[in-house]
Amino acid sequence: MDNAIHLTDVQQLNLNFLLTIQAGLKHDRIAASYKFHLDPDCAALLGAMNASDLVALAANMPHESLFQPIGNLTSLLAAPHGLAVTLCTVGAGRPSCSAPSAVVAAANA
Fold first, then answer.
1. Helix-strand-coil percent breakdown of the chain, rounded to 5?
2. Which end of the chain is more exposed for a tag (fewer CB within 10 A), N or C?
3. What is the per-residue pLDDT across 11-33, written as a single tens digit (0 to 9) for each?
4. What span, in angstroms and rounded, lies between the C-alpha atoms of 8 and 61?
């Protein structure tokens, strides 16, 4: 009998992101919070979770990514690679281009 957990590509992506962020929080909470745009409450919650909690969270979200692309991803992909860091900085606080307009309107209100 196979007891391994089989994750969808989205579940695997979510789990990898969560584990990466948590490892960063354990190494340097301030740097990880800045790098991954976490508020203090989110950083505290994620830092306190154990691996099985993270696996369970990822496993229960088979089709919904917890992490959305940066808002100007299309521009970043089309630009020369040397501009990537600048474009990421410019687009870091903006909603994803795929975000529903109601979400964008609520975020801008």
1. 65, 0, 35
2. N
3. 999 999 999 999 999 999 999 99
4. 9
- The span from the CA of 55 to the CA of 12, in Å, is 9
φ and ψ at residue 3, rounded to 5 degrees: -95, 5
Q: Are 71 and 97 in contact (CB under 8 A)?
A: yes
Give dist(CA 22, CA 49) in Å, integer: 8
| CB of 89 closer than 8 Å to CB of 34 | no
**pTM score above 0.85:** no
Measured distance CA(38)–CA(40) in Å, rounded: 6
Q: For residues 88 and 86, what is the distance between their CA atoms, to the nearest angstrom?
A: 5
State both tokens at 46: 């994620």
